[in-house]
Amino acid sequence: MRTALALSLLNPHVWLDTVVLLGAIGAQQPGAAGRYIFAAGAMSASLLWFSCLGLGARLLAPVFALPHAWRVLDGLIAATMWGIALSLIWP
After folding, report:
1. What is the mean pLDDT of residues 68-91?
2. Mean pLDDT score of the chain
């Protein structure tokens, strides 16, 4: 439990995304009602995302018990990273 809390609360990306990005966007919403609706939407999206992530991990656990599946996933990630890098080089 301590490790999970440390990974969550000591992660600088969490603080940047939550405080800076969401805070700045939320502050731009018109009126108090707009800010509350934005906050509710952001929390709902987060809950949905992490629920789907946990469910997907549970469903794919048997697939990723195989070393070949990890190689395929690593290959897809490498191709994605190369695609992004090339798109930044060639506009």
Report:
1. 95
2. 90
Q: Which of 21, 16, 22 is nearest to 43 (CA)?
A: 22
Q: Are residues 55 and 69 in the same domain?
A: no
pTM of the model: 0.62
Q: By the 8 A CB rule, do 26 and 35 touch?
A: yes
The Cα–Cα gap between 82 and 36 comes to 40
Q: Where are the alpha helices (DSSP H) in the chain?
A: 2-9, 12-15, 23-27, 31-60, 67-89
Please give the Cα distance from 50 to 33 (Å, whole number): 26
Q: Please check whether residues 22 and 41 belong to one and the same domain.
A: yes
